[in-house]
Amino acid sequence: MKKVSILIPVYNEINTLEPLLEKVEKASFAGLEKEIILVDDCSTDGTKDILKKLENKYKVLYHNVNQGKGAALRTAFAAVNGDIAVIQDADLEYEPDDYDGVLQLILNGEADVAYGSRFLDLSGSKTVVKVNFFANKMLTFITNLLYGAKLTDMETCYKAFKTEFIKDIKIKSDRFDFEPEITAKVLKKKARLKEAPITYQGRTFEEGKKITWKDGLHAVLALIKYRFSD
Question: Is 105 left (phi over 0), alpha (psi -120 to 50) or beta?
Fold first, then answer.
C-alpha cells in the first residue's frame, strides 16, 4: 500500500480550514503518499474562496446545495485513488498525527477497517460537553449490542478503510448518520475492525460544533434500520 486518500468534508470552516490543512501536510500518515480530497458542502462564510485558491494543490469538489457530512463523504469516496481512505474533519478537534497508529493496524495486516478511539486513552483529550460523552458511549453500546462488536467509539471521525474493502458499499445517509451507517455496513460485511487510541479536543456549539441531540436520535434509528436492511 502506497497512497492514502484523506477525505475532508467542509462546511463553514473559514477559521480552521487552513490551520487544519497545515497539520495534515505535516503529519506523516504512516509514511504513505497523500491524496487530499476536499468537498465543500455549499459553505456561505468565505470558506469557498479559500478552496478556490487551493484547486491547483488539492482535489477540490463542490456541492451547490448544502446536503450534509454524509453526502459530502459520498462525493469524496467516488474520487478516491488511494489504497486506503481516511476521514478528516475540517475543524481542529482531531490531531492528524494520531492517524499513524490507526493506519498501522491496516498496514500490519491486522484490520480491513480501523477506527481512532477517543476513549481508549483520555489522558491527552478534552471532553467539552459531558452529555456528548455519554451520548457517544450509549451509541457505541447500542452498536455493540446490535452487531456483536466490541467497539469503544463508534461515532469517532477518524475512520480508515482499505479502499478495496469498501468500494462496493453504498452510502445513503446525507448527514451525521453516515457514522452508524458505515459502521453497520462494514460490520455486516465481516470486516476485521480494530481501534487505536487518539486524542480529542472537542469544540462547544459556540465554537462551531454542528452535531446536536437530533443527530443522536437519527444515529439510533440508523443503527436499527441497517441491522435489518441494506
Answer: alpha
